[in-house]
Design goal:
It is a single chain. With 399 residues, the protein is α/β, with parallel strands linked by helices. It folds into two domains: 287 residues, TPP-binding domain (Rossmann fold); 73 residues. β6 and β7 form a beta hairpin. The two termini are 39 Å apart.
């Protein structure tokens, strides 16, 4: 793990795999300090992307969550190489070698459908879009009901279990999968995600204003329960669907999920319901005083999310921010591909520049999600309820 912030002198400091004990200890101390200050904020906001799902594997050790390259290859295989090449020519898309981007291809397809006069060619392009969108849904719907998500569960234990005196942790994710929901369900968390607790579960943004309290039959006093967090799925989910009346319901077997598919026009699509409510909540959370923002596995490639973050950095002097990704620095311990997004991506370049200018609020961590989680401070000790739940789970596994 490598750290870059004001305390490191605007240099990458390595925490592991070094023979120099003193710099290693200094780096670890600063990493712990940055994360402790962030998690201890009154308002904890987490933004997660694809990087938080890439470690999930099946029983054979095969990665389940698709990358953009996986989706590109799958789309090519689904229609055949010859037809795929014809689609590229029809929509005038010529990717650079190694830079094949399914977002740009789908964008070109959508534009071409509106402008190409040949009805047969238009039908072929439209068919390709339909096939690719279904493929994206199927690839992202990879979880099995009994699949354990230990890293996600540990992350929730360290972030969602907060003092009742503080605002509930808010997790915003661009992922379509159900990793956080399933990890929460398996470990006794209550997920407030904007859907009703009655059947059918219907979306209404007012549910985010609700909370969970406990009250027995012998007392009028009520207490906020532990293990509650808010989950905002900014780009939709594999189990959302829209009815003919316009309502949004949860449906495990939906054939038409509500998902902002990976296209360059995400900016426009993200301001349609329910994305309007989600984005409003994200921007509002970033403006609150004493806010800690943890960004994990998000590459700052979506302008409609990156720009509100930069706006909050400019205007909210009480904002503390930690960005975690394994490609922030070149040739790092966690970045064997030699990427350097903190010097390439325009949004990350601005954050890095602020650090260079002496901004103490921002820290960059070159690491994966699974490497980060053990470093996140556990602010609340494990209670007896959680210990009991773990014992029951282990007993069932042995049976």
């Amino acid at each position: 793990m490598q750290l870059y912030n004001q305390s490191t002198g605007s240099e990458w400091k390595i925490d592991i795999d070094t023979t120099d004990a003193e710099p290693k200890e200094i780096a670890k101390k600063e990493i712990d300090k940055a994360l402790l200050e962030l998690v201890g904020c009154e308002n904890l906001v987490v933004l997660t992307g694809l990087g938080t799902s890439l470690h999930v594997e099946d029983i054979l050790g095969q990665r389940l969550a698709p990358t953009m390259w996986d989706l590109w290859s799958a789309a090519k295989d689904a229609v055949g190489e010859h037809e795929f090449d014809n689609i590229l020519k029809s929509v005038n898309y010529t990717p650079d070698d190694g830079q094949e981007n399914i977002e740009e291809l789908l964008t070109n397809c959508k534009i071409a459908i509106d402008f190409i006069d040949d009805s047969e060619e238009t039908e072929e392009i439209n068919s390709f879009v339909v096939i690719t969108e279904k493929l994206i849904h199927d690839k992202c719907n990879f979880l099995e009901p009994d699949m354990e998500l230990g890293v996600h569960a540990d992350f929730l234990r360290r972030t969602a279990r907060r003092s009742n005196q503080k605002i509930r942790a808010k997790i915003f994710t661009t992922n379509y999968d159900q990793c956080f929901e399933q990890a929460g369900n398996q470990n006794g968390y209550v997920v407030i995600d904007g859907f009703s607790h009655s059947l059918p579960q219907t979306f209404d943004s007012s549910y985010f204003e609700y909370d969970i309290v406990s009250r027995d039959n012998f007392s009028k006093a009520s207490n906020y329960i532990e293990n509650v967090f808010h989950l905002y799925k900014l780009h939709g989910s594999v189990d959302w669907e829209r009815t003919t009346e316009g309502r949004i319901l949860k449906s495990e077997n939906t054939l038409k999920p509500i998902m902002v598919y990976p296209r360059n026009n995400k900016y426009e699509m993200a301001f349609e319901p329910p994305y309007l409510e989600m984005m409003a909540a994200f921007q509002s959370a970033l403006k609150k005083p004493n806010t800690g923002l943890l960004v994990v596995g998000f590459g700052f490639n979506d302008n409609h999310l990156a720009e509100p973050i930069l706006s909050a950095v400019r205007s909210n002097l009480n904002l503390k921010m930690v960005v975690c990704d394994p490609s922030l620095m070149p040739n790092g311990v966690s970045s064997p591909l030699g990427k350097d997004t903190s010097s390439i991506n325009p949004h990350l370049k601005k954050l890095k520049k602020l650090i260079d200018l002496g901004d103490p609020r921002i820290s960059l961590l070159n690491c994966t999600f699974e490497e980060l989680v053990p470093y996140v401070p556990d602010m609340v000790a494990q209670d007896e309820r959680e210990k009991h739940l773990q014992r029951i789970q282990l007993m069932q596994v042995e049976d």
